[in-house]
Amino acid sequence: MSGLPLFSQGAAPGRVVAVARNGPHTFSKPVRHSIRLLAGLGVEGDAHAGATVRHRSRVAADPTQPNLRQLHLIHGELLDELAARGFAVTPGVMGENVTTRGLDLLGLPRGARLHLGAEAVVEVTGLRNPCYQLDAFQAGLMAAVLDRDAKGRLVRKAGIMAIVLNGGEIRPDDAITVDWPAPPHRALDKV
C-alpha cells in the first residue's frame, strides 16, 4: 500500500489529475483535455480499447482472452515519489490513462468500483505488472516501481487496471468516489 488513506464507500476521497490516450501502441500516452470511456471497451481511441485483450504479448498468447486492462490508473503520489528519486515522470508517460491524487489505488480490493466524474464507472481488476519497457523509457524505472512489504512480499506500485462498466467523459479535477465490494475483500494481484 502507498500509505494514502483508504476511504469508506461513497466518500469523495480522490480526484482526477490528468487523462491520457493514444491510438498507436506506444509506451507513453499524450495528456488530453478529456477522454471518453466506453462501456465494455475502455478509452475511446486508445490502443488498448476492446472487449478482448489488446496488450501485444497477451494477444500473441490468446487473443480471445477478456480485456481486464481496459483502463490504467496511476496515483500521482507515485509520480511525486519517482520525481524525488530523479526520474523524469509526468502524467501519461508510463502509459496510464488516468492519473489520480488522494486515493490509495493499490489498497483497493478487486471488484471495487470507481466513479469518475459525473457518469463513468470502472471496476478494478488488478495491478499493472511492470515490464521491461519501463527501463527502456528510463534506466532503473522498473526497479523503482517495485518494492517489498514488511513480510518481504513483492509490491507492484505501477498502478491498477480496470474495466469500464459505465461510459462517460472524464476530465482533470473530476471527483473520484469508491464503492466497495461485499466482503470478503480480495487483494489485488497482477493482471
Automatic annotation (TrEMBL):
InterPro entries: MoCF_Sase_C (IPR005302), MOSC_domain (IPR052716), Pyrv_Knase-like_insert_dom_sf (IPR011037). It comes from the Bacteria. GO terms for molecular function: catalytic activity; molybdenum ion binding; pyridoxal phosphate binding. Residues 29-179 form the MOSC domain. It comes from Humitalea rosea. This is MOSC domain-containing protein. It holds the Pfam family MOSC.
